Amino acid sequence: MRLVCLRRISTHETLSQLSRWAVAACIYASLISGTAMAATFGTVVPLGGHTSDLALDEARQRVYVANFTANRIDVVSTATRKLVTSYNVGKQPASIALSPDGKYLVITHVTATGLGNDSLTVMDLEANTRRTYAFGSVPLGVAFMLDGKAFLLTTDQFLLFDPATGVSKVLGNVAASVTLPPQDAPCEPRQFIRASLAASGDGNRVWGIADAEGEGCEANESFVLFHYTRGFMGGLSTSYWTASPPEGPRVIATDRTGAFATSGWSLFHNRFFEVAEWINSSGLFEIGGYAIDSARGVVYGQVTKKGFTTPTIPGPINSADGPRLLIADADNLTVRDELKLQEHMSGRAVLDAAGDVMYAVSQSGLMILPVGSLAAQHRLAANQEDVLFRGNWCDRRTMTQDITISNPGGGKTPFTLSSSMPGVLLSATSGVTPARITVGIDTYTFRNNNGTAEGFINVQSDSAINVPPPIRVLVNNKEPDQRGTLFSVPGRLIDLQMDRARNRFYVTRQDKNEVLVFDSTNFRQVGTLRTATTPTNMAITPDNRYLIVGADNAQVANVYDLESMQFLRWIVFPAGHYPRSIAASNRAILAVSRLAGDFEDCSTAVIDHIDVANGFARPLSSLGVWKNCVDPSTALAASPSGAKILGAQPDGTVLLYDAQVDDFVAARKDLDKLEGAYGAVSDEQFVVGGLLFNSSLVPSQVFNGSGLTSGVVVSREMAMRTTAASAGNSGLVEHVNVADTGSSTAARLVEAPILPDATIVGRAFTRTLASTRDNNAYVLLSRSG
Fold first, then answer.
1. DSSP result, 428-453
2. 642: buried, middle or exposed (CB in 10 Å: 19+, 13-18, 0-12)?
3. What percent of the chain has pLDDT over 70?
4. Among 556, 631, 617, which residue's Cα sits nearest to residue 588?
5. I want to staple 404 with a disulfide (CB 3.0 to 4.6 A). Which of 115, 383, 512, 670 is the partner?
């Protein structure tokens, strides 16, 4: 949850501004999309005006589209994908919903002529009649339940509406239904000013998101997330939120049972905590949309990236990438594919019953996307993410490997390949799928490299509708004195955890939201654990039964049973807490949680206590005599016995938790900066970067050497650490006698270890080195894997 305030404007100003924003966005997006000639996915049906909502009528092969500015309902044939007719209705039709039996189409009208004239229209599609109903407050959204009742949200009430009789039942009002969290200057919502509603596939739950305004909200505008569940055990539930960037696009979608919903840049659980976030969302309100396919386990979403900007008032919209549809996993929003669209979605999207066709409100009218027929589309994919060349210092022959470029659906798609990396040779720079391409390396170009050179092969096509990622090329020329054997492991690797009880080790792969499981005896991957979004650091519980993995873009940490290698449960953190670093002592399991908002006057990060058995976390009231407020990049590490937990912060502060006391007993700041390798040598000695700290966290030894530190372990009473001057360097592995500052031995590594990088979540401090159970081998996260 990223916190911000929304601009405060009155109800009627909102409606007018919405209209002007939408028209401007449509005009400028058309100019942008008109310049692109490459293939795009789907069909756009222009309808004129600004479309605000839609309803799918599969029985009649129709899509009803609310044309907000033209005061009509446009009807598009799903068979011909053309406009077949239009119904003139009252002013500003904003939200529409079709009853489960297909008899009634309910339309809300949002006008600027006074509350008494705002109305709701019920169209009887069988009898070809209509009725209108006046409300004392503006109806903002509508969605049907399975029993034929319509859930209706007005500016100040939650209602159930019967379209057959016109009778409404009040479920609650804003003031009574919305529970506010404690605040220094509380916002007191008086009314809603904009809303989006969506019914679950089974019709038993309606989700909604609504902007709220009221007393004290001017400096802290907010939104309310809510759902209503029918039946004896159901009812209305609400949750108050603020977000930065704004929780946009302001449209909501839910799954078949209503267990989850996505809106803005978040995926929410029905207990109102964030399961995942869309990465790099800019939070624009009027651009984007979603649909969830529970059967396929995917979410279709158009989310604007941070590079996409729009002015406060209507004006040019700039986007380097153009509109994209992301196909992501429904549990953690890992992106499977990225498809190019003709124009931006701008509101609700729905799937047909089979999940084969997605209909979405777009800037020109209606967008039709055959998501179930991707196999028939031109797409590109490579058979591997990385190509690693393991060379030899004395062999200057050209090395080659084959890669395959294919269309996942099996069709023939033309493509081009290019690389700016010197020394890369391609057997062909263009072709048609499927094609086998030989990648060659001119080893003479890399003759002076003593580490691993990195480059990319770009895969492109004007005929393909998707955007394939580049292929990474790695070239290493090992010299006789360099130690280590390379294993290619693609992706952004963040953390390493050894499981001595099972002779396995775990590696966090952040870009794919995974923990990779390897056998320590042969270094083969034996499993994959799916994590929450943007996994960071891991910890094994003191009983060696469970692995806990934090995540920077989820309000949860995942717990796995290490015997079965299965997901066990979530640890749900307080609202606005995102667990980054986790460490387990004999008495307490602690997590550094990045904050979205303030806790006890802290706006950066706090240390939370994890209750694994009950599945929740709570912030510590204090850190001993110190305030519970730390840097978001603080790293935690438990000592080998579990008696202590070290905390290291980038600003030079170090902390120490004592399990026997069950509190923090030391904190010092003798340095201006800390980064790199961190860990506990013992209960009495701790390493951060190139320094050794004693039990009072006083620096007691400076290790000789240059470059950045990456990993540190203790083996046979010696500390081993890895360093490198740069990512392209060979790097060093050093044995250091912690009792003798002058005693150390070093050897060159085959390539550099992964180095600290404050711009990458989880990499200000690095834990990249571990020893196997028999201490005869070491595992190191390095540039190639």
1. -SEEESSEEEEEEE-GGGGTT-SSEE
2. middle
3. 87
4. 617
5. 383
Please state the length of the chain: 785
Angle at 461 between CA 457 and CA 464, to 5 degrees: 125
* Higher local confidence (pLDDT), 583 or 397: 583
What are residue 320's phi and psi, to 5 degrees?
Answer: -75, -30
Q: Is the dihedral of CA 273, 276, 280, 284 positive or negative?
A: negative
Rg (CA), the chain: 29
- 3-class DSSP state of 318: strand
Q: Tokens 């770009």 belong to which residue?
A: 458
CA distances from 626 to 40, 389, 567, 607, 666 (A): 57, 51, 36, 12, 9
CA 264 – CA 631 distance, rounded (Å): 27
Encode burial over 8-37: b for 16+ CB neighbours within 10 A, e otherwise: bbebbebbebbbebbbbbbebbeebbeeee
Comparing CA positions, the residue from 385, 372, 304, 310 lying closest to residue 341 is 304
Could you give the count of Cα atoms lying within 13 Å of 720 in the half-sphere of its Cβ? Answer: 18
Residue 503 identity: N
Q: How far is CA 740 from the centre of its chain?
A: 47
Structure tokens of 598? 């303030």
Residues 331 and 145: their CA atoms lie apart, in Å, by 25
Give the C-alpha separation, 63 to 54, whole Å: 7
Structure tokens at 492: 């952004």
> For residue 182, what is the DSSP state?
P
Specify the pLDDT at position 194. 80
| Helix runs in 674-715, H state only | none
> CA-to-CA distance for 285 and 289, rounded, in angstroms?
10
CA dihedral 78, 82, 83, 85 (to 10 degrees): -70
The strand pairing partners of 62, in sequence order, are 57, 77
| Neighbour count for residue 185 (Cβ, 10 Å) | 9
pLDDT digits (tens, 9 = 90+) for 242-295: 777 778 788 999 999 999 999 988 999 999 999 999 887 777 778 889 999 999
pLDDT single digits (tens) 724-751: 999 888 889 888 777 665 556 889 999 9
User: How many Å apart are CA 190 and CA 172, to the nearest integer?
Assistant: 13
For residues 186 and 696, what is the distance between their CA atoms, to the nearest angstrom?
A: 43
Geometric angle at alpha carbon 441, from 438 and 446, rounded to 5°: 170
CA dihedral 546, 547, 550, 555 (to 10 degrees): -30
Find all residues with CB under 8 Å of 257, minimum gap 6, and list them. Answer: 200, 201, 202, 204, 205, 294
Is residue 211 within 8 Å of residue 242, measured between CB atoms? no
- Per-residue pLDDT of 671-718, as tens digits, reads 999 999 999 988 999 999 989 999 999 998 887 776 889 999 875 566
Per-residue confidence (pLDDT) for residue 190, from 0 to 100: 61
Q: Looking up tokens 């679950």, which residue turns up?
A: 200
pLDDT tens figures, 622-639:
999 999 999 999 999 999
| pLDDT above 50 for 31 | no
Q: Which two tokens stand for residue 689?
A: 């970067």
More confident residue, 454 or 34: 454
Q: Which two tokens stand for residue 370?
A: 């055959």
Question: Is the peptide bond preceding residue 246 cis, with omega within 30 degrees of 0?
Answer: no
Strands across the sheet with 635-638, in order?
A: 635-638, 644-648, 653-658, 663-669
H or E, element range at 663:
strand 663-669
| Phi, then psi, of 600 in degrees rounded to 5 | 50, 45
Q: Which two tokens stand for residue 130?
A: 């209509």
Separation between Cα atoms, residue 105 and residue 65, nearest integer Å: 11
Q: How far apart are the first and last CA of the chain?
A: 32
Beta strand segments in 125-202, E:
129-134, 139-144, 150-154, 157-161, 168-173, 188-199
Within 8 A by CB and 6+ apart from 34, the residues are none
